[in-house]
Amino acid sequence: MIKTRLITMVLAWVVCLVPCSATAQQAAAKMLPDFTLPVPSSSEYQAYLGVTGADTEEFNVHDIDADILLIELFSMYCPYCHAAAPAVNELYTLMQQTSQSGPRMRMIGLGANNTRFEVDHYQHTFTVAFPLFADKDMTLYRLLEGAGTPGFVGCRKNEDGKFEIIVQRSGEFDTPEGFLQELLERAGR
Question: 135 has which bridge partners?
Answer without folding.
Answer: 112
